[in-house]
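Quick bug: SGNH/GDSL hydrolase family protein output formatted oddly.
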Amino acid sequence: MNSSYDNSLTKYADGMAISYKLISDLSYCTENINTHFPFVGGRINFSLLNDTKFVDSDHENISFDATNFIKSLLDNRRCRNDDVVIYMGDSLTNNCYEFCLNDLLKIIPFIVREIPQHHYVLFKDFKKIIYISFENEIKFGVIN
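Here's what came back:
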């Protein structure tokens, strides 16, 4: 069953003509994050990942900072526009969403502004991850 946050996300994506694939089985994404990434406590241990990048944002600019953070990953060739990514929240959304990274850039401001939860962007190859926390941290890392 969709939450109201899922409904608003899909309505926004449809209104912006953003192509996405709905993944209703959260365990698929959760298992892959838990399998491929190291954890300390309940969080990904970015200090054990390669090619990491961190940004602290203030609450007022988090959607702008998240967009610029992803654009910087593209500019530095850490990612490509056509990379397939899976968006997953930690509590308020009941589904995961598969996007092209270029389309994620169009919807990420809405997601971080309108859905108050931790946000995970898992690359389809399960080697890279972007984390946007509710505490306004933005992190990227690569697992080998």
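Actually, after a second look the formatting is fine. Residues 62-75 form the longest helix (14 residues). Closing.
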